[in-house]
Amino acid sequence: MSNEGYSVIGKRQPLIDGVVKASGAAKYAADLALPGMLMAKTLGSPYPHAKILHVDAGAALALKGVKAVVTGADIPGKKYGFFRSRRDETGLTVKARYIGDPVAAVAAVDEEAALEALDLIKVDYEPLPAVYDPEEAMKEGAPLVHDEYERNIVAFRGFDFGDVEAGFKGSDHIREDRFFSQGISHGNSEPRACLAQYDPSGKLTIWTSTQSPHYVRRDLSLVLNIPESKIHVIKPFVGCGFGGKVELYAHEVAASLLSMKTGRPVKICLTREEEISATRLRVPMGVYVKTGVKKDGSIMAQYVRCLADGGAYASSSALPMYNSGLTCMIPYRIPNFKYDGYMVYTNKSVSGPMRGHGANQPRFAIESQLDMIAEDLNLDAADVRLKNATQAGDTSISGLVFNSCELSKAIKESTKHAGWHEKRGQKGTNRGIGLACGGFVCGARIGGHTASGSFIQVNDDGGVTVLTGSSDLGQGSRTVLAQVAAEELGLSASDITVLSGDTETTPIDPGTFSSRVTFYAGNATLIAARDVKAQLAQVAAEIMEANVEDIVFRDKKVFVKGSPDHFVPFAELVNRAKSLGRGRLIIGKGEWAPTNTQFPDRKTRYGNVSGAYSFACQVAEVEVDPDTGQVTVVKITIGDDCGQVINLLAAEGQAEGSAAMGIGHALLEDIIFGDNGQVMNPSYLEYKIPTSKDIHDIALLEVGRPDPVGPYGAKEIGEGLLISTVPAIMNAIYDAVGVRITELPVRPEKILEALEKKERRNTP
To answer: What is the pLDDT of residue 738?
Structure first.
């Protein structure tokens, strides 16, 4: 990573909205209010699978303060969903498919009246047979969650590259292992909320906590039968998303319907219990891995089978099943690879996108197995990774093109910094060290509209406004875009105002997911800034009697190359440019999507799906108490290749957040389902997430080089770091106490049980 020559890029830049957030002045969806606003709540099904025969809302409507009740029968439009081919939701349903599935909603003058009214709504249900296990759901004769999907298989993705059987035959050593990754909650600091207002002209405006305002508008148009041009979606400040706020949700449909019915603004705020049990979860997934290697650890062939519990609705279904296979082929050279991935409906809470989006589960399995193989062959686990690591210039067997890759350097630097060789295999200390690698896309090529856009307007005082369709969820993307514009125009980030996430004032953008914002929106902003710069440079060249290509923008000054003492202040140049001729506006436009990608072939799945790929190696150090089974993560060292870092402070924050989330996934978090599919721990009293006391030393080593496609050479850092945290911790636990846990999370009782079994095996 090099910052040479940059004035803004690569520096530690505080968030441009940090003061507003820290002071409490930032307004989130739950903070918003309009005159005459009603409060609403939704009623969830008590059954995991049931037809709704009749809803009697008479008593609820008679309650003082209640203004309206809506049900699934009031839905005027069609089903919606992430993919056109798998639209299976209506927001309020006429057939419940999991406990908590919303069947009605009520609007009242306050939330207390709305809650009281819910108890008065009488619903006649016809319970239906239910299924809770994906293996059982795939069997012939199992109850169908959605009648149109045979054996409840909502999505299948398969790859078959090279000759896997020949690869296994040519291997010196083969392992087959099974692993399981649990369902977990996103743990957003802000539970979802929205405020909808339908006006007499037929215009619906909705303020909502979302990652994708344009997706919300699209799906609201479908389900409410309102033209998209008549729907205005505004994203206020958002308190985290991690993938879970990409889609349209039932509360947004309900608030909109109730506003249409009452003619008044309607707000819904979800409780933490609703947030956990009735929105989206990370996909629970069983993973089978078979890997063949040579004696030196070179991978010859690999077969991966993933079985995912999709819950009651499709959500993004096909995408995580594709990613689960795709990302297996990023960090290592695998000459022969086969993959089968199934997403299966069950009568449980819905699984959906979450940071890593299908990459985490197989990565945990593969990286754990690579350590097992290294031990089988008496090889160093780090050397096995180095032997197989992807290199810059490689093209994977599936068509992924790696123009930049510093994974080998990441492995070497992180193991050196962590003291790998000194600490590995220290018997009797109850301390262990483990590593894992991973790679991720910088915005996968999706069907249809995939580009990002930016508009830049220069104000009279020299301030700059950037309008972007991308959404900042707290990760700091507005600051990154401000830095990109500031670097190009010779300003500071504080001179830049970034407006985002409004379907009527900002460019159309698919949303914030797949780690695409810095890569896509960053390039779009860079193009727009260069457009502005070219307009101003032309004027400056005339004023200074110089060539356009010799004009320099830096430190709020504009001057001729080599003569920084003879300058025009940026603001003065703007005013002189605007006053020329009839008077003009200084506006730049940028639209960008990578030209080096291709949508994967629908039959073979071959194709380069991303403009670039990030890489990382993580080394985890743990201490295990053999008496209690308690695991403490002492330190995590991250060797990260995210190309050129735009904001070092934000990059460090992303690394620390990823490590914290990975610790939760590995050791603490677990959605517990009852026998009837009900979530049994839908609050932070029972569902444990890491706190600051669980997070210790985290070291981030930036080892990347500028990527030829990314803005200023930047690549993603938001998701790629997370996927190797869990297996690094699991491998460190094994190094500490010699027991291998293959089902997440690693609760203390699992450690103790495994230690007891180990002791019995070793006792004569």
So the answer is: 96
Whether 395 and 480 map to the same domain: the answer is no
569/642 same-domain check: no
Q: Measured between alpha carbons, how far is 511 from 247 in angstroms, rounded to an integer?
A: 10
Q: Domain with 75 in it: what CATH number?
A: 3.90.1170.50
- The domain tally of the chain equals 3
What is the spatial order of strands in the sheet that 551-554 belongs to?
A: 551-554, 557-560, 567-569
pLDDT band, residue 446 (cuts 50/70/90): confident
DSSP secondary structure of 665-718? IIII--PPB-TTS-BS--STTTS----GGG--EEEEEE-----SSSGGGB---T
Instruction: Write out the E strands in 118-274.
Output: 122-127, 153-161, 173-181, 193-198, 204-208, 231-234, 266-269
Look up residue 751 and give its two tokens: 């450690």
Task: Give a yes or no: residue 299 inside a domain.
Answer: yes
DSSP at 289 = E
Give 582's pLDDT tier (boundaries 50, 70, 90). low
Angle between helices 522-544 and 477-489 (to 10 degrees): 20
Query: Cα-flanking dihedrals φ and ψ of residue 387, to 5°?
Result: -60, -35
Q: Do 272 and 185 contact (CB within 8 A), yes or no? A: no
User: Who's near 362: CB < 8 A, 6+ residues apart?
Assistant: 285, 287, 289, 304, 306, 324, 325, 327, 328
Are both 408 and 354 inside the same structural domain? yes
- Radius of gyration over alpha carbons of the chain, in Å? 27
Whether residue 377 has pLDDT greater than 90 = yes
Mark whether 698 and 621 lie in a shared domain: yes
CA 524 to chain centre: 21
Type of residue found at 381:
A
**In this structure, what are the phi and psi dihedrals at residue 577, rounded to the nearest 5 degrees?**
-65, -40
The C-alpha atoms of residue 724 and residue 363 are separated, in whole angstroms, by: 7
Phi, psi of 572 (to 5 degrees): -65, -40
pLDDT surpasses 60 at 3: no
Assigned domain for 171 exists: no
One-letter amino acid at 155 equals: A
Which residue, 308, 196, 185, is CA-closest to 262? 196
> What is the mean predicted confidence (pLDDT) over 384-398?
98
In CATH, what number is assigned to the domain containing residue 505? 3.30.365.10
Torsions phi, psi for 701 (to 5 deg): -110, 115
Where does 462-558 have alpha helices with state H? 477-489, 522-544
Buried residues in 233-260 as b, exposed as e (16+ CB within 10 A): bbbbbbbbbbbbbbbbbbbbbbbbbbbb
Q: Which of 536, 563, 592 is the last residue of a domain?
A: 592
Query: Could you tell me if 79 and 87 are in contact, meaning their C-beta atoms sit under 8 angstroms apart?
Result: yes
- Name the residue range of residue 86's domain: 37-128+190-239+245-277
Three-state secondary structure call for residue 214 = helix
- Annotate 444-465 with three-state secondary structure: ECCCCCCCEEEEEEECCCCCEE
- Dist. CA 335–CA 390, nearest whole Å: 12
- Residue 449: pLDDT band (50, 70, 90) is confident
Categorize the per-residue pLDDT at 496 as very low, low, confident or very high, splitting at 50, 70 and 90.
Answer: very high
pLDDT of residue 206: 98
Cα separation, 205 vs 37, whole angstroms: 13
Cα(613)–Cα(403) distance, rounded to whole angstroms? 8
Q: Which whole number is the average pLDDT over 78-95?
A: 95
